[in-house]
Every structure is written in structure tokens, then in C-alpha cells.
Amino acid sequence: MPVDAKTVRRIAHLARIAVADDEVADLQTELNAMLAFVEQLAEVNVDGVEPMTSVTPMELKQREDKVTDGGIADDIVRNAPATENHFFLVPKVVE
Amino acid sequence: MSDLTSLTLAQARDGLRSKSFSATELTQAHLAAIEHARGLNAFVLETPDQARAMAKAADARLMAGQARPLDGVPLGIKDLFATRDVRTTACSHILDNFVPTYESSVTANLWRDGAVLLGKLNNDEFAMGSSNETSAFGPVISPWRRRGSNTPLVPGGSSGGSAAAVAAMLCTGAVGTDTGGSIRQPAALTGIVGIKPTYGRCSRWGVVAFASSLDQAGPFARTVRDAAILLTSMAGHDPKDSTSIDRPVPDYEAAVGNSIKGMRIGIPKEYRLDGMAADMNQLWERGAGWLRAAGAEVIEVSLPHTKYALPAYYIVAPAEASSNLARYDGVRYGLRAPGRDIIDMYQKTRAEGFGREVRRRIMIGTYVLSAGYFDAYYVRAQKVRTLIKKDFEDCFAGGVDAILTPATPSAAFGIGEQGEGDPVEMYLNDVFTVTVNMAGLPGISVPGGLSAEGLPLGLQLIGRPFDEATLFSLAQVIEDAAGRFTPTRWW
Fold first, then answer.
1. Is the entire prediction scored with pTM above 0.90?
2. Site from A66, A90, A94 to mutate, B interface, most B CB atoms within 10 angstroms
3. Of A53, B75, B190, B466, which is most buried with the most CB atoms under 10 A?
4. CATH code of A24's domain
């Protein structure tokens, strides 16, 4: 199912990636090439088939309910572009 | 001194233990080789000071007779593994200057065993690519050239830097990741050994995530024995990765040289593609012959859903990537582009930081997960995945021990030759390798011969879950028959 320019912009918004007006057409072509390629999956009979949820069968391990980590606030903010007192600083979130 | 870089990893390890040379000398020889090979663009970060310090510590242990399994062995690490205090970028601008404060579990295992870090290796941005052409650091140039030609060739991808560095003898071995073929395909294109272990064999903690249900770490080396040695150190249960399997790690080196008499090897008829290079077809038959000569039984098998693996992968992998790459928002690490408000900042940061291939895949992934399309695309692809896995399970249940296929449809191509107009052209390079990630199985690529133009061609063996040992035994038979392939130095 091919996508139109409006859908390309909507996807870009969902993905939070700015797309310039002059980039939309190329992106549309690329995305449609990929979608055309995956179209053949519609041929497969998947009646009664479960979607794969676990690649290698295993039971989720649970750990002990103990505090085993923490107190590393300096490390956590070390790579941030803007911080103050161990807070991450960002442009305004709410009007 | 330069003779030291032509040693295999096993020879280096043994030479260090027998005190034929020191870890410092061995590391220095590799650092010099790296300096002379900058034209390959295999390394994105060299770490000579750290390498020398680690070599010195290894020498102390070797002198005291307390050698660890990999003491003094110099390695390169794909820039997708978080290395403490050493810049890690996933070869993307969005992680410019990111310096982890933690170590990935796989690399921690290697340092625990005494290995030496020579530097970080180039890769396709966020591991998305099959040629190492999407890296923010520029492409890697293969150490191989076509006979009589100077055209720069790709080493394959996404672990192109890792493969090129090992093939060019800049390190005794390297570590990469494989999500759709990113270890096996570049190994095949550069004439070296690469193995993607079973999903869960190695920990993914500290590996920059691309597609969480497909990613696996694995070694590159010039021989089967070397790859086995590295995997033994890399693998193991990690409580920090809930998808890592709690099973002991066998001594994989012990499987190298084991007899393959009586093993049953399947040749899947659906892997015979029209348009596959004639020399690759011939190598595939020769490979079957070598295994037969060593006592294996070779039979034709069927994996009926083979052709759907690549399209299913190009739904599942981008979908998972769109989720994993949502964290790159300019807030906590990496690049931040200024914006008038937070949404604007996210959008500009991600537009500026991600390359074209990454953006393409995030957008496809976002689309197939979006409301109204989720069932038709993602759920359907996951159902096809169940069928792909079942094909292999049925085959193994029928008594097959391993499956032999070509690793790639053809030899390495020139930089810029593929994918410009149509992204799908590049994706077809992984047609033989993605099935293995989709099924979570182990797969090894071993050099089998040279193409008509003198470029390496590899064979792939696919094994049962957690039966990497059988793959090493079989791969050694191929290596014994095919020999080793070394590029002529042009740099």
C-alpha cells in the first residue's frame, strides 16, 4: 500500500524527525520502494499461526527485590548537553 | 616486528605464553600497522595509550605465570559496544562525543580474560547497512581489490571496520554484531571467519540496540580456531540481559578439529537463486563435496518460507529500531539541536543527527507499528517469522545437523555501486543471512574460495540452537580444504 506525501509527513511527526518540504518526495519514493518489497508477505497463509514473541524459548528470570545499584547521578548526567544540579535541562515543554 | 601481525590469534596467545615475545611488543606491532592503514578507515578511534597500559598489565601476569585465556591478545571493537571512558558513537552524529560511563558485558568479558583494546572500529550507522557506507565517519575501504583494478571496494557491513581490520592484520581478532548478517556478510566479503551465535548466547547489555529480537554479538578472526577462542570468552549468561541464556559456555576451541563423520548436512533448495554468480554456485557445490569427503552425508532439504525472510525482516527490524532509537532525543546524551520548544528540539536533533538510511528505517518502522497498519504489517511479519523458524525446526528434527548455504549472492562490490537509486538493492545482499537471525539460530561464515576477479567468497553453515560447537567442527573441515586467503597489501 503506497504512502502519499501527507502520510509521509504524519510518519515523520510520529517519529519526531523534522522533514523539509524538499525532502518529502524522495522519502515517499524510498518508503514506497520498501513497502512494495514487503507486499509479497500478503501471499503467505498465516491462518492459525502465532506471532513469534520469544526468539529462544526461555522463562523470564526475576531478580531479588533488593537495591543493588544507584548513587551514580554524576555518571548519569555526564554526557548530557545541558544540566543543572543533576537535572536535565530542556527547552520549554508546556506553553 | 611486523611478522607479529601475521600471527593468528592462537599463535599470538601461544607465543605470549611461551615468552617468544611480549604483549607490549605484540601490541606495538599492531599499533604500527594501524597507523599505516589509516587509508582503510577501519578504525574510528585508536586507543594506543590504553592499549599499551593493558599490554603492560598482561605482561606482568604472563611473567608471573598467571596467564588469563586472552592475556595480551590485541583486539578491535565495533563502535556499537559501550566501552567505559572510551568514546562510543554507533558511527552516528547523534552520539557525537558520547563517552560511556559503563562497559558492555561482552567487552567486559574480553578484558576480564586479559585482551587488549586497540581501538573502536567503523560500522554502518546504528548497524544499518551492508557495506559500511552509511557511517558518519565515512566508508571503510576493503583491503581487497579486484585483480588488476584500483577501484575501492566495500568490506561489507554493518561490521565493515571489524572485517577490514582483521583481514588487513591490524588486530588478531575483532568483535562485531549481527542483526541481519552484519558479521557473516562482511566476513565473507573479506575472506575471514565470522560467527553469529544463537540468540541469547552473548549478552546484549551495553550494545547499542538496533533490533532487540535479532541483535547478537560475535567474533571475527582469520581462522576458525581463533573465532572459537574469542566466542568462548565473549559468551555467557548475563543477569543484566533477560534474553541471555543461562547455560554454561563450552570450550569451543575443543570442537575445532573434531570429526564430522556421520553428520547430516542439508542443502536448502530454496537458496538456489536465479542470478546468483556462477562462481558462488560452484563454491557451494565444492563445499558440499569437502564435507562429503570428510564423512558427512549431504542431502537436499526444503525451507519453504525462505523467500519471505527478507521482506519480513524489513518489517520487524525497522519496527524494533524505531522503538530503540526513540531514546535519541537530545535530552540525556549526544547531539542537541536548538529548538523553540521541546518537540521542535526533538525533531531538529533527530533530523540533524540521523543519516538517510537510519531515517528511512525509523520511518518504515514507525509506519508498520502505527494504528491501522500494525496487524497488516508487524503482526503478519511476526507470524511469518514463526513459520520461518518452524521450517528450520522441522529440518533439524528430520535428522539434519547443519545446513550449508552461500554466505552472500556475490563478491564485494565497489563503493557507491549499489543502493543509490533503490534501497532494496542493498538489502538483497543479506538474502542468505537474515533467515538465521529471524530464526534465532547460530550461523558461521567461513572463506571458501575466490571469485573470478580474485575476491573472497564465503560459505555459511547454520546450526541448531546453541550448537556452535558443531559449526566450528564443520567450518574447520572447510578451512582445511579451502585454505586461507590474504589480501595483497595496497595501503
1. yes
2. A90
3. B190
4. 1.10.20
B299-355 pLDDT, tens digit each: 999 999 999 999 999 999 999 999 999 999 999 999 999 999 999 999 999 999 999
- H or E element: which one contains B29? helix B23-36
Q: Which of residues 60-89 of A touch B (CB under 8 A)?
A: 60-61, 63, 72, 75-82, 88
Residue in chain A nearest B333 by alpha carbon: A80
Query: In Å, how far are B144, B145, B485 from B152, measured between CA atoms?
Result: 8, 7, 19
Residues on chain B touching A12 (C-beta within 8 angstroms) = 363
The mean predicted confidence, pLDDT, of chain B is 97
Q: Does A11 reside within a domain?
A: yes
User: Which residues of chain A make contact with B84, given a CB cutoff of 8 A?
Assistant: none
Residue A10 lies in a domain: yes
Nearest to B487 by CA among B464, B465, B454: B454
Is the residue at A34 inside a domain?
A: yes
In eight-state DSSP terms, residue B460 is: E
- Provide the 10 A C-beta neighbour count for residue B246: 12
The yes-or-no verdict on residue A14 having pLDDT over 70 is yes
Question: Do B244 and B203 touch, CB atoms closer than 8 A?
Answer: yes
Sign of CA dihedral A12, A17, A21, A24: negative
Residue B282: CB atoms within 10 A of its CB come to: 14
User: Count of domains in chain A?
Assistant: 1
Cell numbers for B174, please give them.
575483532
What is the tens place of the pLDDT at every residue in B138-160?
999 999 999 999 999 999 999 99
Main-chain phi, psi angles of B216, to 5 degrees: -150, 140
Is CATH 3.40.850.10 what the domain over B1-491 is classified as, yes or no?
no
- Which residue, chain included where needed, has cell 605465570? B65
Domain ranges of chain B: 1-491
Which of B22, B92, B131, B182 does the annotation list as catalytic? Answer: B182
